[in-house]
Amino acid sequence: MGRQRSVWRPIALRSLAAVAIAAAVAGCDAGTAATPAITPGTVAAPREVNVIAKDYSFLPSVIDLVPGETVELHVLNGGVLVHEAVFGGPDVQAAWEAAEAAVADPPPGPTPTVTVAADVAGLRVVATSGQRVDITWVVPIDGPATPGGFLVGCHIPGHYAQGMVVPVRWVGRDGRPLESPGAAPSTVSQPSQR
Question: How many Cβ atoms from other residues are within 10 Å of residue 162's Cβ?
Fold first, then answer.
């Protein structure tokens, strides 16, 4: 009997491990995963969306938005450095990257004012360390058609290059991802320098 027990125990453990691995793999279909059902925000009742900026990353790693909804953005800087959250397509990201680079390493004194042309401004929220900035925003109805996809990036010099950018995933009321003809869903590219 002692010999049978030693033979069956490894087989049982391997079978249990195979079942656990199969269950884990079955739960990893992230390409079609739904977020919880979303009640799109309205002017009277905006949906709350939290974006946490840390030093060189954002949480969550994907921002879910419903085209045309009204959201109450809570941008919280949980890092030590100043951060910004710029919402927009690659043209918007490139415009802010170029504007921020132009004022990198300013002389001592007040921080220079940075602006871009209105047609590539997107939405920009700046927060100092520990600060939370709240803003009500109507999400662009045509956001899913943005060529190159819609992103959230930080363009304080060097931050975007260190990976401080996350994609926007466009979702319907049921939380299922929408088709985004302008987006490359699995890639996020650096904005081009102008």
Answer: 11
pLDDT at residue 165 tops 60? yes
Q: In degrees rounded to 5, what are phi and psi of residue 5?
A: -60, -45
Phi-psi category of residue 103: left, alpha or beta, with phi > 0 → left and psi -120 to 50 → alpha: alpha
Instruction: Name residue 45's amino acid.
Output: A
What predicted TM-score, i.e. pTM, was given to this entire model? 0.74
CA distance 97 to 183: 20
Q: What is the mean pLDDT of residues 158-172?
A: 95
Predicted confidence (pLDDT) per residue in 57-84, tens digit = 999 999 999 999 999 999 999 999 999 9
**Two structure tokens written together for 82:** 């100043």
Q: Which whole-number Å values give the CA distances from 107 to 36, 97, 129, 175, in the listed order?
A: 48, 19, 21, 47
Q: Please give the pLDDT value at position 72.
A: 98
Q: Is the peptide bond before 60 cis (omega within 30 degrees of 0)?
A: yes
For the chain, give percent helix, strand, coil, nearest 5: 25, 25, 50
Residue 186 CB: number of other CB atoms within 10 A?
A: 7
> Phi-psi region for residue 15, left (φ > 0), alpha (ψ -120 to 50) or beta?
alpha
Query: Tokens 């931050």 — which residue?
Result: 159
168 contacts 150 by C-beta, under 8 angstroms = yes
